Sequence to fold (306 residues):
Amino acid sequence: MSAVAASLLDQPEVRFPLDLSVRIPKIRELYRSAIKNQWDPQTAIEWDQLDLRPFTQKQLEAARLYWSRRAWGEYGAISESPALQIRFCQERHPPDMRFFFTIRTQEESRHAEVCYLMAEKLGGYVKEPVQSAYQGSVSTHGVRKMALDPAITLEAIVASLVCAAEEIAFDVFDHLIKITKNPIANKIQRLVMRDEVRHCAFGWAYMERRAPEMSKKELAVVEEAVVTMIEKVELNGYHSAWLAPDSPASRAEVEADRLTYEAGLGATTEELEKPVFVASVKRIRKQMEPWGFTLKPFFHPKLGTI
Ligand SMILES: [Fe+2]
Ligand SMILES: [Fe+2]
Fold:
């Protein structure tokens, strides 16, 4: 008898018969739309029109840090997306998902590159967080490891990573488009958002297909994963520094965000983001109800109970 596989990579690959037909039409549609909507970070932005003269040195320093941090976040997706792709292939999930994710990974690369380029233009990309203790909460939510762990269901991963975390990020992007005054910074936000809308739709389309086929027990696992993502990752400041536990590092980030926002170069503030975050969690709860559960109330000292 063979030992239980520790990782998906320890299991043999069974490729044939190779089915490439349409199994989830909505996801196949997202794939088609993704290949039609490609853009190049080098040429899609009018980089030479970025005028830095109106900004103070302090604002530029802050904005450069903000865009570097955005690049780190997008990089997280570059490293996690292929792990999910391996999972889709190894477990032979619908071909539409495998097709879509090749492009999704490419899109995350684009996002990381465009944020990197912006940081470079603003004075130089910053390679790592000032305080490495803070790295844990800004660089990963552990999806790569989860994706290769056969004990964690794919539904739990997609629901927590996409329908919760990516959805919250999406609402923030939408908010940033409305408040970012600098035309170059605004265009970057809009281009990233154009891709993210598909990334989110993928998660909901997959769960819409899977939820009715799942048992109560399996759905409870999904629910728990979403709760963990919101409670331990989002409410811990993964996307928004003001939600992170108070520390010199989180305070420095909040301050950099404020300066960046005031310069119109991206970022938002606690005051402006609060209602966006609350609305986001409420909408996610509602949108998950047809799956068969209602997410519990969440508490954060700065938000009260959502
Ligand atoms: Fe992205
Ligand atoms: Fe994404």
